[in-house]
Every structure is written in structure tokens, then in C-alpha cells.
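ok so for the tutorial part 2 we go from a plain amino acid sequence to predicted C-alpha cells. step 1 is just haveing the sequence, like this:
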Amino acid sequence: MATGQSLRRALAMAAAVTLVVVVAAAAANGAAAQACARRVARCNPRVDYFRNKVKPIAHATTLSGLRYTNTYVDVTVQAEEGKAPIRYRFVRCGCRAPAAGRVRIYVPPAKVYVGDTSTLSQVVLEIGSLDRVAVIGSVFYTYSPTVRRRVAAGRIASLTPSSTIFTPPYAQLLNASLTKVRGSSTPLLALIPSRAVKTFKEAVGNRIPYVTSGELDEVTPLGRAEYVKFFGIVMDRSGQADDAYDAIVRRYNNAKRLAARARARPSTLVGFPFGGVWTQPGEKEYSARFLADANADHRYQRDGKTLPTSLTGAQIVRDFGSAEVWVNAGLYPSSPSLTLDQLLADDPKLTANVFSKLRSVQCGRVWSNQRRVSADGLANDYFEEGAVRPDKILEDLVRLFHPSVRVPGDFHFYYWLGRPSRLRCPTASLFGR
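step 2 — the prediction. this is what the C-alpha cells look like for a chain of 433 residues:
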């Protein structure tokens, strides 16, 4: 009997110590430790629990300080320009590690909330962690057919209940019936875009730990795509993340080499006017790098700016009226079958004052990036998968800018709008059509 009582006392003391450790970890981190998976039963600090590692950061300028130990990984993220960087420590589930002034997250998380569609594409397509996704921000603005099917089947929840609601009700993430993760006061880890952190924290306080990233502040396609490594660490899929990024870099650089062989550099116009304003990328902006690497010319390609320039319709005609190709044209909701005549008919006044005066329109050299959109036109895969697969975007651009250059495969995000029926091209067609 005395032996049994001693054993029960020992177990009770061990449970109390464990509880203290978890609570202490929560206090040091500013938030409770989230539920994690594949817990190590007896963590040995001499054992390497991160055998699969991502390679050093090569292109992303907002990621730094990558350092592996046996039981945790350190990464620093510059999530928002002008603000202090966030120093993360990703700890193997079941192991202990001092916070040392860092945000401590236990990996892999049991379940995650994914707030941004580009992050969703990385987690689902590139590193294969779909089964860890419990909730997404909005199914209405998600393209992925696989994710949409899971939402329809009740296997993933959509935090936003309507396409007309743009701020997710983050407090609902505390509801276990929504997350389907029970037995933890903080059931999941939230992957939050930096622009939403303030609203998220106002709604849930420190009750749900979160990870945010600086991918949207990356000004190069390969820098933005390298965040797949970061999310590979978060989801404990580093090997898959490293392989995915290597393939992206290889295909991107191959497309860039093919484009460099083309003799002509077609001049370009980008985007579509909204509210009477038409923006064009500056030299150091994200979308401008695609044009440069696709061996295409743009009037502002050497203006030294990191932000886009806003122009009126008259200014577009003045500066880009002679541009040979117009890319990223389209209406909203999006359509994968819009014709140039339909685009011109949508706003007769804008067509008369601007569109009809553009050589790219007159000659039928207009391309849309809406080839892959949801049935209702609200979600566009160009902004979802395209955000993490710049190689596919660049391949498309090389195909449309340089038809004589043979790029393996077919168009993924872009399609041609055809010729206008009532306008005459003043020059020979760039594409021989």
C-alpha cells in the first residue's frame, strides 16, 4: 500500500511540474503554447530532432538569423517595414527550450488557421500539409478546388461566412467546435498576414499564438517564394519545402535564360484602371522584376522607384499609348473567357478616351492573368499559387512576349483576349496573327 501511495504522489508531482513548465512557457511567450503533434516522449537534447533542414536563405531579404539546434530552430522575420523584427524560436513538440526573448512556437502544430491564400498555397501545394489545416480565412476568395471541396465536406471551416465580409471574426477561432481540436485551451496556431495582426490581436488577445511573415514586402519573385522554407519549418516539412524551392528556382532561372535569347524586347503596359487610376510598377517593385526577367521593356523600368506610379487615363495614353503588349488586363469578377470586344464594351467612355487609343488594343496584343479563377470569379489562382510559383508566371510571360522562344509546357495563368473587331492595327502584328 505504501508503495502505491508513493507512486501516486510521484505522478501527481510530475504532472504539477509539467503544468508549471507549460504555464511558464506561455508566460514567457506572451501567449499559451498551442497544441502540437508528434510529441517526443522523452526529449534528449543530444539528439537532433530536425534532421531535415532547409538550406540557408538565399533571396528573401526579410528572413534572417536561421539557426538550427537539436531541439529548436531560430528564425528572424522582418514582418513589417519600419517595425522591429520578430525573433521566432520553433521548438520540437515535447522538448523544452528557453524563450531568450523570442516568440516560442511548438512544432509541428496540431492544427493551423491559414489567413492568406498565398500562405495556403504554400502549406497545401508546396509542402503537403493540408491535413493540418483546420480553418481558412475565406473560402469565397480561395481558388484551390481541393480546399474548396474540403470546406464543402466540413473537413475545413471557413472563418468568414460570406463573400461580403472582409474582416474575419477571429474570436471564433477560440471555438473548439469550429477548430475541431479539443483538449487544449489554445487549440491551433494561426498563420496571419502581417496586415491583419493588429485586428487579430484585438479580437483574441494572447489566447491564440500566431506566426506572421514578411513575404509581401519581398521585392523579388524568388525572395517571396522563399517563404516556403519558413512555412516548411513552421509545419515541420523542411525537406519538402527545400525540394519545392529548389525546383522553383531551377525553373525560374531556366525561363529567364530562354527569355534572354530573344532579340526583341516588346514594350509593355501593365494592369487595369480602378476608380479612374491606373498604376504602373516602379523599377524596384515586385511585378517589375517579372518584366525585366522576361526580357520585356517598360517605360518606368529605370526610374529607381520601389513604389508604383498612379496615372490618369490621359497619362496612360501619353506614356504607354505605343506599348506593344498589355498584360494583366481583365474585369472583376474575373473571367477565364473574356474577349477583347467584351472588355471594350464594358465601359464605352473609358474605351473611347483611353483603350481605343492604345496600340496594344488596336493590334490585339492584350493578355489576361485570369485563366484560373473560381466559378463565381471571386478567386484568382494568379494571386494564390502564383504568389509562390513565380516560375509559372515567368514561363507564361516569356511565352506571350516571345512566341518564337520555346518554353516547355502550356500557359498556366494567362490567356489571349483576341483581336478587336472594330479597330485597326497601325503596325505589323508582333505575333504574326
